[in-house]
User: Which sequence fits this backbone?
């Protein structure tokens, strides 16, 4: 069986949806950000502030490759930027991978992130206006990489359960 890889912008629901998909499919779930935190013994915020983003991106790539090489089956929730660095977007097309882009609009992302930005170093210090502008531009820049996924599921105006059902549909 293939590894199921969920990707998309910060706040699109990768971690939330992956946990719920895991409960239904009984396939274990791993969150790439959490794996990196465990490996570094630091929070994502601490990695960014103590070592910088380039160091984080190297760890992120190494950990992603490691998980894909593991013989076990997992649902993997990626970090928001994972497909956009190194050759990670090419790894989304691997034979043993089912990659799914959880596609959310700027409004959906803004509404979810505006009160949940403290653990996300890229937006943690922005005011509301800066954040909306940042998300719009950043999503535009990253869309090319997200669109390398094998499948796409639109998450706007859907409950967690509805998105999980849509994912099961594309995997069937
Ligand atoms: N229908 C929904 N589907 C998914 N998440 C939802 C939904 N409605 C509200 N949320 C909330 O939106 C947030 C999504 O955050 P989550 O951490 O799952 O995103 P993420 O894509 O893993 O972000 P990051 O890239 O920063 O790790 C959570 O607080 C979740 O409770
Ligand atoms: O979108 C991003 O670049 C990031 C998203 C998070 O999941 C973390 O991986 C980190 O905060 C960077
Ligand atoms: Mg997450």
Assistant:
């Amino acid at each position: 069986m293939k590894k199921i890889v969920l990707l998309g912008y910060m706040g699109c629901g990768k971690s939330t949806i992956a946990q719920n998909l895991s409960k239904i499919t009984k396939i274990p779930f791993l969150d790439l950000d959490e794996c990196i935190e465990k490996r570094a013994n630091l929070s994502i915020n601490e990695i960014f502030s103590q070592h910088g983003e380039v160091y984080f991106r190297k760890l992120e790539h190494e950990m992603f490759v490691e998980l894909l090489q593991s013989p076990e089956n997992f649902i993997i929730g990626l970090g928001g930027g994972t497909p956009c660095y190194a050759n990670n977007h090419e790894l989304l097309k691997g034979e043993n991978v089912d990659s799914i882009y959880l596609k959310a609009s700027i409004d959906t992302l803004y509404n979810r992130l505006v009160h949940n930005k403290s653990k996300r170093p890229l937006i943690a210090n922005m005011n509301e206006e800066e954040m909306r502008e940042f998300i719009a531009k950043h999503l535009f820049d990253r869309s090319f990489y997200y669109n390398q996924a094998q499948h796409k599921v639109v998450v706007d105006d859907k409950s967690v359960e509805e998105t999980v059902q849509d994912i099961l549909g594309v995997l069937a």
